[in-house]
Amino acid sequence: MSRRQPNRTTRRGMTLAEMLVATAIMGMMAAALSTIALAVQMAHEYAAEQGVMAQHARVIIDRIQRSFSTATASESFPGAQVVTYYDSTYPFPQAIAIWSPTATAADPDGLPQVGEIKFFAADPDAPNRLLEFQATGDTRTAPTSNAAWQTLIDELIADENVEKVELTDQLAAPKLVSGAVKSYSTLRFEMRVRPDAAEMADMRGGTKTWETLRWPQRAYGLTSGTRQSWLAFQFQIAPDATAAQESSVDPEAAPFFGSAAIFYLLEK
Questions:
Q1: Rounded Cα gap, residues 19 and 27, in angstroms
Q2: In what order do the strands lie in the sheet with 224-237?
């Protein structure tokens, strides 16, 4: 009589081929996870950079728009003056003077005093920095030429007694060519006035009639008309102050735009 042996479960280890396959699968999973983690980190850093640049841009746009929208204006001074710097034949309109008296203007029908003007200008020595400043109490009459405006701005920036607010140090400020010593801000101002100073001079001189002036929306009467001063500006913000001073335009720099307008009466 034969006895039946009890059933026993046979256990064996992984073969070399199975271990290699498992190792390969784990390696691919680890590579995929590391790629995802790197992508998430890069996306987070990019979003953080974009958020910081947008914040700097909002401050700049809000400050300039608010100042220009409440500017004082006259026939002689249309609320603001764009100041242009030059390098050879290249223009860089990177500063603006806005008539912003803290009280009633000393001569509301004429030219502003220097102390009544609020300046927004890129620092000529560090054009990635945008400064806002006002020499309150300076009773000199505002200049009338671009060169004199530029001299005044440089003087006030260098004056330690003039309080200056740095709105950003991340303005993209590329150099004209690689290796150049001087660089300029990407900040650009543009103003349009209707009717402009030349038209008003022609009308006062009798070579143009009141009715043929370029009144915005034809808003004029027999003795007065509505003049428009329009300001537009654009600039680029770099991810950080170091990138803002690179020798070429940073591909990661983001462009921003702003505009504002004022309307005021002119008497015939």
A1: 12
A2: 188-194, 224-237, 254-267
CA 158 – CA 268 distance, rounded (Å): 42
How many angstroms separate the CA atoms of 3 and 10, rounded? Answer: 20
Q: Could you tell me if residue 115 is left (phi over 0), alpha (psi between -120 and 50 degrees) or otherwise beta?
A: alpha
User: 3-class SS at 256?
Assistant: strand
Confidence of residue 17 (pLDDT cuts 50, 70, 90): confident
Q: Which amino acid makes up residue 166? A: E
Strand partners of residue 265: 226
Placement of tokens 């007065």 in the chain: 224
- Residue 63: C-alpha distances to residues 67, 112, 239, 259 (Å): 6, 20, 21, 11
Strongest mean pLDDT among 23-27, 53-57, 163-167, 174-178: 163-167
Identify residue 169 by its one-letter amino acid code: D
User: pLDDT averaged over the chain?
Assistant: 86
Task: Tell me the pTM.
Answer: 0.80
- Per-residue pLDDT reduced to its tens digit, 166-214: 999 999 987 765 545 567 889 999 999 999 999 999 999 999 999 999 9
- For residues 226 and 194, give the distance between their C-alpha atoms in angstroms, rounded to a whole number: 9
Q: What is the DSSP string of 140-196?
A: PBPP-SHHHHHHHHHHHHH-TTS-EEEEES-B---BSSTT-S-B--S-EEEEEEES-
